[in-house]
Design goal:
GO terms for molecular function: DNA binding; DNA-binding transcription factor activity. The chain is an alpha+beta fold and 98 residues long. It is built from five helices and three strands; from the N terminus they run H-H-E-H-H-E-E-H. Helix 1 packs antiparallel against helix 4. The longest helix has 14 residues. It is elongated, with a radius of gyration of 17 Å.
């Protein structure tokens, strides 16, 4: 859990997660969106991978990153439970039988 919170503590890493929520992206495409060096972005990717928030796969000459939503969901649930918040699943809409 501490690795997840460390990963989420940085605004650049949070923005990477937001971008990956939209679709998987290459390391180069992600890096191009930030005014930092590629080695700095690689370090951010490493922190996110270590926390289990993203996964990567090699495709030809590119590394493609994917969001690992289940890890993020588990972390948020653990955070909520640590503060005693009771989370309930969203109610399913009732189907009408007219």
């Amino acid at each position: 859990m501490s690795l997840v919170f460390k990963a989420l503590s940085d605004p650049t890493r949070r923005r990477v997660l937001e971008m990956l929520r939209e679709r998987p992206m290459s390391a180069g495409d992600l890096a191009a969106a930030f005014p930092v060096s590629k080695p700095t972005m690689s370090a951010h990717f490493a922190v996110l991978r270590e926390a289990g928030l993203i996964a990567s796969e090699k495709q030809a000459q590119s590394v493609i990153y994917h969001l690992q939503m289940s890890v993020l969901e588990e972390a948020m649930l653990g955070f909520a439970q640590a503060f005693g918040w009771q989370l309930q699943p969203a109610a399913k809409p009732e189907s009408s039988t007219d």
